[in-house]
Amino acid sequence: MAETLGIYVHIPYCLKKCSYCDFVSFPKDGDLDLSPDEYAYRVCREIEDTSGDIKDGYTVDTVYFGGGTPSCIGTDMIGRILLCLKKTFKISRDAEISIEINPETVTVEKAENLRFLGFNRVSMGVQSLNDEILSKLGRVHNSEKALEAYRILRNAGFRNINLDLMFGVPGQTLGIWKDTLEKIIELGPEHISFYSLQIEEGTPFYEEYRNGDLEIPSWKENREMYSCALEMLKSAGYVHYEISNASKPGFECRHNYKYWTMKPYLGFGTSAHSYIYDKRFFNTGELEYTRVFEESEDEEQELLDRMGDFVFTELRLIEGIDTVQFRELFGRSFEDVFGKILVSENMLPYLEIRRSGSGDIERLALSRKGLDNTNPVMQRFIETLYE
Amino acid sequence: MSDYQKYIRNFSIIAHIDHGKSTLADRLIESTGTVAHRDMKEQFLDNMDLERERGITIKLQTTRLVYDAKDGNEYIFNLIDTPGHVDFNYEVSRSLAACEGAVLVVDSTQGVEAQTLANVYLALDEDLEIVPVLNKIDLASSHPEEVKEEIEDIIGLDASDAPLISAKEGINIDQVLEAIVEKVPAPTGDPDAPLKALIFDSYYDNYKGVVIYTRIFDGSVKQGDTILLMNTGKKYEVTEVGVNAPYQTPVAELSAGSVGYICASIKQVKDARVGDTITLASNPCKEHLPGYKKVQPMVYCGIYPTPDEKYENVKDCLEKLQVNDAALTFEPETSQALGYGFRCGFLGLLHMEIIVERLEREFDLEIITTAPSVIYKIVNHDGSEYFIENPSNLPDPTKFDHIEEPMVKATIMVPKDYVGSIMELCQNRRGVMEHMEYITADRVGLHYMLPLNEVIYDFFDALKSKTRGYGSLDYEFDHYEKSNLVKLDILLNKEIVDAFSMIVHESESYERGKFVCEKLKEVIPMHQFEVPIQAAIGQKIIARETIRAYRKDVLAKCYGGDISRKKKLLEKQKEGKKRMRQFGSVEVPQEAFTAVLKYDEGKK
Which domains does chain A have, with CATH numbers? Predict the structure, then answer.
């Protein structure tokens, strides 16, 4: 059986850029170096030109169109790229084919066209169902439009829908957050992502925050919101499987899962990242992008860098690190490399260690307390490697 | 006067910056056929890139021209260049001392400026014959008649027959050449008397050692002579004498009245100081020439290697520059914040900027420079005194009686519409007006006594910005004066960063402290924790800003499989760190050190 591969396609256009967003995206009607149409051609050319022998060695089982707002450009351009992928790669029949959309772009016609093209999963950026919060975030839609878009997607036949939510955002209280969660749970999407707002450099939020013109909930409130989400989702039957993701059983995002488990994926389009044959490379962030390879200093460094990637990505999963996989990948036992941390008294409260009958560590995950302190814990693992 | 001396003219060109001094020099060289037009680079005399870029002369050049005059005789012109900035006044005065005359170039669109006056005074001190020339007459805004009046009124020179020229377009250059023949006196001096010669410049050459530029007043010198430098008392054997025509050309001997160069295997320029007198060891002259002084730095700053730069590299490069620059001094010092570095002394701010820029550009060094400081005099309770060059060395106020600071006499010329705002500026900088005068109906000369400390801190930028570039400034050291000065410390996250310490007048400490805190808040990035920035005098906090805490973590959405970006957060920004300096747990970008010195438009 051929190995499986995930494919990511970046569509860098939005109707308008949100105040917190630092992803690579350009306002669709702005002054652009490449129109969406030209861009789609360029991506197709990249797919055809660079897939070489990869296409023969792998079967694609996940495809993910992210952005930006992929749904804001013509469905024909999306279709052209998807068709190009289908012509170039062997895509398995049960592949998960996702597309990110934003409520303001959803029409009955668009939803049906996307279904028709073969998309079987949508991920919609709802963020909040409170209109004041939405307008503070600089979103184009309001809550009513989000609910309407959800109904349209369901009616068009989508049976696997993710809704993206944000907490820790300006003006949000625990009450407002709870209210949004309740309404979302009532809708019953198969998958819910709940991200903590990150104030990124180069965004309007960053400048406002720096100047003291933007207030966000304290870290304590942020953690209360997170806890509240975990509880409500759990009692509604969702499985919390990654730091910021939960789904109904069997509806975990197969594509994102590859990112967290060192599985190969290829990215096409501006700023898209790839990981294949143990190498990482990415495209630059301009519309007329070029490809850059991430090089480690030497082989020894490369091994350490890959171990670091492995630990910090798998720790994002609630089931934690698979130590058997670690040994298979790197030829060394997990305890051998990270033993120091595993016996450290002050690290233990942040970790959950599961041992086999013979006492060997099988899995290592973040404890509930660890989930609230991901940065320092992960940092500790990475530092151990380079000590 | 010996016969040969009749046909020699030794002169300088003096002018305010940008009035066309170097361009005129180029035309003179070109029209005497000394350098063929095709070999001319713009401004032949300014041969450092930096000089050409800034349009100023830093290092002197001397050129010998041969001119066939209208009277049918052939004249030797020794054109002795002068540096064009107030920092180098002493060098200017020595160059002028080597001449009998000076061509005064005045921009006929601008009129007399502060530096024009300063240079004229220096030339008059040396009893030079001044030949005024009005430049840029090709420009529409030229008003030569008024400028002639200015020259007559302010300087008291007869400018009625001054040549009206355009150095750029080559108009009436022949009139300048003729005026030099007619007006500049021929040199005098006894070729048979004991050697008496003035060093007016020197530079280091890799092959010849120090090359001395000299004016012979009496006697003569040739290869093989043993010369004595009268002020340093050092003796050397002459290996070569010659003239710049315009490239170095050896000659048999240099004798009274001539200008040329001498090489004598001298290792460092500080052994052949500008202003020193050369004589023969075997037959010395009785008295050395007047006016010698050892130049003293006026402005100091710390120069430190960045974390990626080696201390040794900085040291090597400073040594290389010093070989050629007797005015540059440096000594090792350590800063708690910046580690090992050097305290460097300069003639003035421009000199400092030039050295820093050369270190960065010619030598490709990565350095951090700290706030410039003047030399303060500390007077102890028992009346004894000492000087400090580094603000962090100021002792506790109980340990001394008082501090004195250097004062300068400043001449500022501005169009009359700006007088009000410049008087306000000077007032704010603790200046005391000595007098003011109307130079013309439109232009005013302001004479102030100002603390040097205030002048080196963005004064020139402020002057330029408040006068839309029309204001000009010249200053010279005058005296030390008792003053109510305090040390202003800056604390980041409660710890003093010594590299930011400065000495300021008590009356403006609050203002300055606030300004620095605000600037630092702008340039220091947010950290995972709150960073207080405080300005303090002793234990007292006088200003405070806070950089907000900012959590950057891996919880946010990670898109398109971009693992690396998240991982970088965990690797403590391996890459970003390079341009940062770590103070305790606070990271400070390099630009912070210069940002706190910049003139701020919003400030008074």
Answer: 3-260 (3.20.20.70), 299-385 (1.10.10)
